[in-house]
């Protein structure tokens, strides 16, 4: 996991104030199908929300994931890790915060925080790593397609 | 299934024009996790969207489903039926339309249409029936709790 | 829904005795991720189990669904209906029973019962209708490919 | 992630030979609902299979998870990490291998490998950490309930 991520609410708030503009925010709501017998969100549910936030973030900078796939490029997940800080109850609305960085030429690292609407509670922190795959060849691309690299550089900067 | 539901696009449009105000509308977007190997929405995905639209519709008239459960009343599904008219592709945005009626003292029938954003394409029609259950007793309530019955009458009228 | 399906346990047992050989049986177990806040199986979970039973039933008569898809034929669901008779709790093991019939040249109707291991409790009855689609053309096939029709006739007879 | 886990097939085979008895094995099969538009298993699907293997492993040593919950003890996931080595295609059968260790008094670490039936291909490695929670108090238990601690010691040894 990502040791540099804030793990206390105090740290979180400080962090949010100074870097708010760098996170993309995606609102979520807990419906019955997201919960398990415990009355809280099942731990696997978050992985779908994190994907949704990622696709929406790409869209916000002009990359339509469905177009990317149609162009022959996919971005499968190669690593995934989360820490669950607090359970989310049914009916709650929260925010998935995410931001991307490139760890080398092709790997895309997405950091995550899921927080309450007012930012006072931290539910989850996590990181997801994607690599671009050439669909036809089934192989990792050595470099991102140029138009994509451009917007990603813009996003990551 | 519901024979009175429109099955052609022409009928659908006509219908939408005359009754638009009676449907609650809930927007959805197809993310990768909603699809299957065919590149389109897996047929079981819709059932989650239909639940979300229902919870959101109740909320729009002042009923918070999580509060209802906390008060000891649940609304489990007792019947579910759908007809799949057209496949939805990844990246598509669409509208879940739903409206409720009471078929007798306690059964709540929810009719559904899932249509494209411009209303020109019909993806799915369906009906879901709920009954109120007393959580403590595990039995069907003979009548809806009064405050709930009031708003539901308002919604259904 | 299917009016001819037994709705009482007495009828179910009688039926099971006389026709046991005609149903394919697929065992299931309720894990935490199948449940919702109510401590019982979420109503959408069954749709995945019903698909699994169908794929396994086809496999038992020599049809590998992945091969079918590779050959250019898909069997999407065009109609789905269920009646929920009794909630299934976490930790329970049960049996999905299914059998297929052809309602016309190409439609495949699958009837379902989900029952307790000893057959004394009925959880769900349902019906799922599939039609064969030519993947390349995206159209319903007028007739099933011959090798498939052969085994399906064998299954349905 | 777990640096000590084998990342090449060679290492995996060697490891499997020497320690085979220490892993609990749970077979899985890829059905259509497990896949996404890419024709392979969606990355979130594995989290459900890993839970199933865990529950089944506990059951194999006499701990019924539903009983545990009924007794007031839950084992929520507090950390989850996976590395995706190779995509799994529709129709494939594979093995989830898992084994548990106690990293301190109460944390339970479960290591995972998902491999092909013949053990020659590695799809995923991962680790899931659970802690026991007292349902009534909503707090982490300082120590495992004695009967549970006994069987877990047996499993971990």
Provide a brief overview of the structure.
The structure is a homotetramer of 157-residue chains. The first copy, chain A, is built from four helices and eight strands; from the N terminus they run H-E-H-H-E-E-E-E-E-E-E-H.
How is the quaternary structure best described? homotetramer
CATH structural architecture of chain A: Roll
Rounded mean pLDDT score of chain A = 85
Under CATH, the homologous superfamily of chain A reads Hotdog Thioesterase
Strand percentage of chain A lies at 25-35%
Q: Name the CATH class of chain A.
A: Alpha Beta
Structure annotation, total helices of chain A: 4
Mass-distribution shape of chain A: elongated
Q: Any overview of this molecule?
A:
Four copies of one chain form a homotetramer. With 157 residues, chain A is of the alpha+beta class. The first copy, chain A, has four helices and eight strands. A five-stranded antiparallel β-sheet of chain A has the order 1-4-5-6-3. In chain A, strand 5 (108-116) and strand 6 (122-130) form a beta hairpin. Chains A and D meet through helix 2 and strand 3 of A and helix 2 and strand 3 of D.
